[in-house]
Amino acid sequence: MRSRSLTASVAAVTAFCALLAGCGADKDTGQAVPSPAAPAQQWTPGPTGTAERTAPPVPSTLPPQVGDLDRADASDVAEAALTVWFTWDTTTDSGPNDGSVRATPLLAAALARMVASEVPAQGPGGDWLGWSAQQARLVPTVSASAEPVPPQTDEKAYRSYVIDQAVTMPDGTVTGHRQSVVDVVLARNDGGWEVSRVSLR
After folding, report:
1. Do 172 and 139 touch, CB atoms closer than 8 A?
2. To which H or E segment does residue 85 belong?
3. Considering the entire predicted model, what is its pTM?
4. pLDDT of residue 66
5. Separation CA 124–CA 89 (nearest Å)
């Protein structure tokens, strides 16, 4: 029985590593290299030059919702980044990408550049339009996933989370939920941990 459990754990860690290998920075140029397995956005950008939307401004500070943040704690950084990334307000945001841009102070340089530079050429989709018609906000709860992850080192940390976004009306009522499983890789620099990769399953 223990042998089956160990085999399942190893397989899950291997799958996690394979998934995380889908997006990163080019070793020669240092530029971010996106992959379908690890989208920085929540919809697919169109061909270069066809964008009709403008990128949201890149903030220098985090939203107040983050509160006190311990940059020496990889889990604290990952959870704060995902909380900002998946907080969407249809009354002020043009699409889900605005949330990921707000998280850029917690992102590594390559990922921050990729998130800030990609302007979706198409609209954010039918779900967003429906939420927007109701002036809804999507408020996330970030919970650690039970999925096994590779062990943390001095330079890298791996985390997996379940994101539950509550579709919240202006009067505070919740009309639905949207769930995602997200894998995160963090890298440590002189200022502490930062998110270097976000992979939406």
Report:
1. no
2. helix 74-85
3. 0.73
4. 84
5. 13
Tell me the DSSP string of 24-64: EE-TTT--EE--TTS-SSSS---STT---S-PPPPPSS--G
How far apart CA 18 and CA 173 sit, in angstroms, is 39
Sign of CA dihedral 53, 59, 65, 66: positive
User: What would the two tokens of residue 150 be?
Assistant: 């590779």
Distance (Å, whole) CA 122 – CA 117: 15
Amino acid, single-letter form, for residue 130: G
| Of the candidates 118, 57, 111, the residue with the CA atom closest to the CA atom of residue 81 | 111
Tens digits of residue pLDDT in 92-128: 999 999 999 999 999 999 999 999 887 666 778 889 9
Q: How many residues belong to the chain?
A: 201
Q: What is the pLDDT of residues 67-98, one digit of tens each?
A: 789 999 999 999 999 999 999 999 999 999 99
142-155 per-position pLDDT tens digit:
999 999 999 999 99
In whole angstroms, how far apart are CA 106 and each of 35, 111, 126, 151, 197? Answer: 21, 10, 30, 21, 11
CA 193/CA 196 separation, integer angstroms: 9
Tokens 């995380």: give the residue.
20
SS3 category, 3: helix
